[in-house]
Amino acid sequence: MPSRLHGALERIDLAEKLASFDDAWNPRIVAELNGQEVRLVKLRGEFVWHSHADADELFLVLRGELEMHLRDRVVPLAAGDAFVVPRGVEHKPVAPTEAHVLLFEPAGTVNTGDASSERAGSLRRQDLDRT
Amino acid sequence: MPSRLHGALERIDLAEKLASFDDAWNPRIVAELNGQEVRLVKLRGEFVWHSHADADELFLVLRGELEMHLRDRVVPLAAGDAFVVPRGVEHKPVAPTEAHVLLFEPAGTVNTGDASSERAGSLRRQDLDRT
Description:
With 131 residues, the first copy, chain A, is mostly beta strands. The first copy, chain A, has one helix at 14-19, and strands at residues 12-13, 28-33, 36-46, 57-63, 65-70, 74-78, 81-85, 91-106, 124-125.
């Protein structure tokens, strides 16, 4: 029974997927479900302040450390921590070294949200290592 | 700016959440976003065959091993692996020892799907360790 959902019914080895690319701030879609996408991204350094008008966003740190800057505080996150940024809330992810992060958000969400930036990754399905 | 989303804008330490309960097959909701829920569950042994008519379901293995039984094959999963079961697809999760799993699925999804069973956990928000 072939599924039309990208990434469905197959083992998704997150470390393997992450090893298949190196560029930062350029999320790869590894699966989709219920109109949402699971993305993997490598973060290095500082992103731009932005918010998403219509999308809540989940960050799950798989490796490294991530500082989630909010307008009123900074939340330090480490591997094994998750964090949800509700729609409309300004945030700026900062990775002091390198962080590997799983994102969960609605399909089509632009990573820079309302901020126009050359940092907006050319989001693409991570099909490189599929046969 | 208080958020109405459960678990939003706070660090969610997955290991800490998992350490706060021990019963198997009883998912705890640790966050919600975009009408979806992030749940943590401990699996031990064999679950029931079931499917979800209207919900795709993501399994992300955090610890241990999980065998995802499908009608035509068994997919072995280990920590760091994710797996998406599309709506309508029969599946039976089996954990030979103990597995800790993050689930992502639409809010309100019953874990036994179409199978009636005493295994249907009394899904509840994981507020025990919040102050």
